[in-house]
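Changelog note: in this version the structure field was regenerated for every chain. One regenerated record is shown below for reference.
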Amino acid sequence: MKLAYVYDAIYPWMKGGAEKRIYEISKRLAERGREVHWYGLKWWRNNTEMW
């Protein structure tokens, strides 16, 4: 199953409750074999890739 999250802010650059929740859910789904992608605004200044 492929999943995409579209949100304006991405954890850990924005540390609100919604960002953290999306991160935790995504991490757990990926550990279970799901393909997870995040799409959001770029809030950081360095590398354009997270991992």
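Spot check on this record: DSSP finds one helix and two strands in the chain. The chain has one domain: 2-39.
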